[in-house]
Design brief:
The protein has helices at about 20-30, 50-55, 145-155, 175-180, 220-225, 250-255, 260-285, 300-310, 315-325, 325-330, 350-365, 380-385, 390-400, 415-420, 425-435, and strands at about 5-10, 40, 65-70, 75-85, 115-120, 160-165, 185, 205-210, 235-240, 310-315, 335-345, 365-375, 405-410. The strands form 3 sheets. It has a 6-stranded mixed sheet. Strands 2-1-11-12-13 form a 5-stranded parallel sheet, sandwiched between helices. It is about 35% helix and about 20% strand.
Amino acid sequence: MEKKRVLVAIDKFKGSLTSLEAARAVCRGFESSGTGECEFRIVEIADGGDGSLDVLEKRLENVERIAVKVHNPVGELVDSEILVYYRPDNWGIDVSNGRESGSPSGKENSGCDSRVCAFIEMAKVSGLEMLSKAQRNPLRTSTYGLGEAIKAALCRGAGTITLSIGGSATNDGGAGMLQALGYRFYDIAGSLMAAPVCGGDLHRIARMERPLDTAATGGEEARETFTDLSQVCFKVICDVTNPLLGESGATAVYGPQKGADEEALKILEAGLANYAEVAHRCLGVAGGCKEYPGAGAAGGVGYAGLAFLGAELLPGWRFFAQVTGLEESVKWADVVVTGEGSLDSQSLSGKVVSGVLELAAGCDKEVLILCGVSKLAQDELRAALCRDLSGEMLCKCINWAQRVRCCSIASLGHPLEVCMAKASELLEQLARSEAQLS
């Protein structure tokens, strides 16, 4: 009897399990199910949020984890870290812009090298989990530390910088990040706005300027710190597809999660709208940038990446699918297991689960979704999988969707605190019972 090939590509259960811990619990459940021998393949996966740096580091050679000091979202100086590594020659994600090779040796460079890459996880510098509940107020949080982390990468000679922007505590449109990189913002009186600009300050911006190369006029400080950002290749990976503004924008959807009340939401939305208008008027930023899918990610950092850094926005799951060879593993499998801590409609719009489902649908694979709690009924899940399709594709998807099952730890009937405290044990139990149905 052939072994059943089981691929486990499951996201973290936030606050309880890492991707790898969750995957191991699933494997133990299948092994103890008594349904026959299984061959397992674990793919640690992320989508641009918390834990992304750790997942990527395991997939790279010649990589350094660099300690950096940055200001957290409320302006406190904290220790953080970034990755610096060589771009693998056979890796198509980080593209070369033709400059000669250098070394991520830790020494400062006056120029940037396209083969030297940096990876910055925003959750580690401007993340929501860095703050206590009392500190969570997007009117008073800033991405200034993210800009400081970028500067640290530039000092290492990085010519390609990937920003992983999930898990943010901010709603400042990336303005704080830009300040740290040399952009200047002025109020209606013409006064230079002090750093860091926070989400609640955006409505006061009346004019903005790009960084100035004052080294050309003899500025010694600028000669040491100025970097031409147009010569740097920026990538922004995110796990959502929201635009900057509106009912599905950064503020309306994610502001409440970051601590914004109704009054704060109005101030933040008006601020982002003003910020985008000033960027268009003063710097010629295309109006379409604010509508681009992902512009609303991380409280508008997606927009800042597009509008000011010339970044390419990449779906987080697709970035990590390339890094990990996920598609090949899906083709190999008989059963694909995925999931995350909380499954809801957002899980199907750019996050790990949606990516695994997309690949599994293309290969017509049986899928088991295991989660901590599900806010989607089985019929809602199947309807969501088949939306926006028609004709032959719809028929194929309906047939495949019947092979997708979803179950949650919460369905076992334990209180939430027990589910989180014993997530590994309960996930193993869930996987065991579901394996018996496969």
